[in-house]
Amino acid sequence: MQAGQKQGNMEIHIHDSPQQPVLVSRKALKALGAVIDFETNQVIYKNIDKKTVVPLVEAPNGHLLMPLAGNLLQDGVTRQTEFLTLNDE
């Protein structure tokens, strides 16, 4: 998969069930450095790009959707400053 200017791999496990979404594990999200704002459905992948805020689409069932094909940062908006942690001011 493509993530900004970086190329990487993501291992997924597929269940033999029609219309079953691919669920991304906490381990995978942690590896990406994902910080998710559930109020605005946006994410920053700190380990990929600390300045790009990526919108997530909310499915009718409430799941947040991230693209697994194409670029993970597609449709992202660049911040002026890098995001470090929620504790930084």
Describe the structure.
The chain has one helix and eight strands. With 89 residues, the protein is mainly beta. The chain is globular. Helix content is 8%, strand content 25%. It has one domain (21-89). Strand 1 (2-3) and strand 2 form a beta hairpin.
Q: Tell me the span between the first and last alpha carbons.
A: 33 Å
Q: Number of DSSP helices? A: 1
Rounded mean pLDDT is 85
User: How many runs of DSSP E, i.e. beta strands?
Assistant: 8
Radius of gyration equals 14 Å
Proportion in helices: under 10%
Backbone shape: globular
Structural class: mainly beta
Largest sheet: 4 strands, antiparallel
Query: Strands of the biggest beta sheet: in what spatial order?
Result: 3-4-5-8
Low-confidence stretches: none
Number of domains: 1
